[in-house]
From TrEMBL:
It comes from Eggerthella sinensis. The active site is at D37, D179. Pathway: Carbohydrate degradation. HAMAP family: RPE (MF_02227). The gene is rpe. Its cofactor is Co(2+); a divalent metal cation; Fe(2+); Mn(2+). This is Ribulose-phosphate 3-epimerase.
Length: 236
């Protein structure tokens, strides 16, 4: 059965002076998640937002809070984000060794949240093999993490397809999320390759009409996803 992709607008591109208004707007427009980009100035050069923002967001929306941790010490900070109300938490494979990664996934699950692991553009799909059966979602970075508004790195869609294969090889089917430079032109590429969740920062919030922009990305992705499914049914 065909499942529509879910759009996860990244509030890094929202208007922080009117964050409540922007959250209400994407909720009304049919977003699937609120994507929260947490950066610490160490794992990535940029510094953004943390636990207090997640706490406030939890009061402001019914949408699931999808917290993307681009921080050097996720194991230390994880409990705070889980307490604050994160519904899904993504840790980076590059920030943790294999044992730490399993501990992070277990801690997220113990709190009743969904666990995701992310790979940067230069980390191979194969690096996910040891954990792919244990996660609810894989986040494929289609830009170098750190800043919104960057251009999609070509070939990221092929990486999505490779990750789908890595998962299938062990009988797993985590959601695949793609993050970075996603808009009406790039969403069809990754949706056709098997992406389920698309993070959009600038494509939504820098648009004159963010609700219409969200709908346009969703429609472009769904059209491509449907065509790909017709050509090669999932699981075939
Ligand atoms: C980048 C962040 C992204 C980013 C997306 O490090 O993880 O979520 O804000 O922004 P756009 O869609 O503008 O590339
Ligand atoms: Zn992100």
């Amino acid at each position: 059965m065909f499942e529509s992709v879910k759009i996860a607008p990244s509030i890094l591109s929202a208007d922080f002076m009117h964050l409540g208004r922007d959250i209400a707007l994407i909720e009304e427009a049919g977003a699937g998640y609120v994507h929260v980009d947490v950066m610490d100035g160490h794992f990535v050069p940029n510094l953004t937002m943390g636990v207090p923002v997640v706490k406030q967001l939890k009061k402001a929306t019914n949408l699931p809070l999808d917290v993307h941790l681009m921080i050097a010490n996720p194991l230390e900070q994880l409990p705070w984000f889980l307490d604050a109300g994160a519904d899904s938490v993504t840790v980076h494979a590059e920030a943790l060794d294999a044992d730490q990664l399993m501990r992070a996934i277990a801690a997220i699950h113990a709190a009743g949240a969904k666990a995701a692991v992310s790979v940067k553009p230069r980390t191979t799909a194969g690096a996910l093999a040891p954990v792919i059966a244990d996660v609810d979602m894989v986040l494929v970075m289609s830009v170098e993490p750190g800043f919104s508004g960057q251009s999609y790195i070509e070939g990221s869609d092929a990486k999505v397809a490779r990750i789908v294969d890595v998962a299938r090889a062990v009988g797993a089917s985590p959601l695949i999320q793609v993050d970075g430079g996603i808009g009406v032109k790039t969403a069809p590429l990754v949706a056709a390759a098997g992406a389920d969740v698309l993070v959009c920062g600038n494509a939504v919030f820098a648009a004159d009409d963010p609700a219409a922009a969200l709908a346009a990305v969703q429609a472009a992705a769904d059209e491509a996803g449907l065509a790909a499914l017709a050509a090669a049914p999932k699981g075939a």
